[in-house]
Amino acid sequence: MSKSNDFIQYFLSHRTVTNELIEKIGTEHVNYQPTPTSMPARKLVNHMLKSFYQFTAAAAKQEPKQLFDQEEDASLTELAETYTSETKKLIEAMSDEDFSETVDLTEMLGVKLPAEKVLNLAMDHEIHHKGNLFVYVREMGHTELPMFVKQGG
Amino acid sequence: MSKSNDFIQYFLSHRTVTNELIEKIGTEHVNYQPTPTSMPARKLVNHMLKSFYQFTAAAAKQEPKQLFDQEEDASLTELAETYTSETKKLIEAMSDEDFSETVDLTEMLGVKLPAEKVLNLAMDHEIHHKGNLFVYVREMGHTELPMFVKQGG
């Protein structure tokens, strides 16, 4: 299996769960924040989706596109669908060699890393914030929540 | 660098942060739970530390040791220190070849996986629950929290 197929499977095993949680956030809860210093739900979701897309664009050496004219007018589900499919496209276009290319993240993180490491960092960032989101969604009143990762999905 | 050194660095880049959060949990908060269906703080911490140790023992094909006579008498900090150092020892003893060995997790997860995949799954599990823990600790009143990962640590 190619590295990009492999990584897409890994990406979707977590992103599918992120998107299931996003679907549970009712419009009355988009500004929910567990404490005054926490990111509100909508901001957290946006941060997750956008960071992954930007990390992937950097790894693929592509310019990230402006995916929405007015991001604030889109529903969380629309954001989730668009960012997920555009992120997937970027990964699909990467060859095995692209995974070893050095990516200059000096501005974002102060380091240069192989593309594969950038993608793994993006995954860890997603899993971390999805872990936050699980607590948010439970606090919104949901008690039937998925497993943290969807194996073979 | 050997695979075990590489993985220890990755493990500690997250576990150091887990342990910093654990240190912030005062004795008055060990039973804190965000909602009635959430794991209480102490149970969550115990689950994180123990799962990683058990996943690693499985990956290293070692019998996990009983590390405490009375786990419930130990402080969270004692649990964190002991589980972290014993987990580290298990990884240190693994050769590069051990990372490719097939590990039978039929009882735990219904699958057989290469040891390296078992360790990566353990990392994802840690990052997920550390993401939960960040919200718990903020809800306990802490506003100065570390980054989700400690690079070069």
Quaternary organisation of the protein chains: homodimer
Q: In terms of structural class, how would the helical and strand content of chain A be classed? A: mainly alpha
Strand content range of chain A = 5-15%
CATH architecture annotation name of chain A: Up-down Bundle
The total beta strand count of chain A reads 2
Can you give a write-up of this model?
Two copies of one chain form a homodimer. With 153 residues, the first copy, chain A, is mainly alpha-helical. Chain A has one domain: Up-down Bundle (Four Helix Bundle (Hemerythrin (Met), subunit A)). In chain A, 57% of the residues lie in helices and 5% in strands. Chain A contains five helices and two strands. Chain A has a two-stranded antiparallel sheet. In chain A, helix 1 packs antiparallel against helix 3. The mean pLDDT of chain A is 96. At the A-B interface, helix 5 of A face helix 5 of B.
Sum up the structure in keywords.
homodimer; mainly alpha; Four Helix Bundle (Hemerythrin (Met), subunit A); two-stranded antiparallel ribbon; metal-binding (chains A, B); DinB/YfiT-like (chains A, B)
Short account of what is shown:
By secondary structure, chain A is mostly helical. Chain A is built from 5 helices and 2 strands.
Mind sketching the topology for me?
Two copies of one chain form a homodimer.
Chain A: H1 3-23, H2 41-60, H3 76-92, E1 102-105, H4 106-109, E2 111-114, H5 115-139
Antiparallel strand pairs in A: 1-2
Helix pairs in contact in A: 1-3, 1-5, 2-3, 2-5
Keywords (chains A, B): Metal-binding
Family (chains A, B): Belongs to the DinB family.
InterPro entries (chains A, B): DinB, DinB/YfiT-like
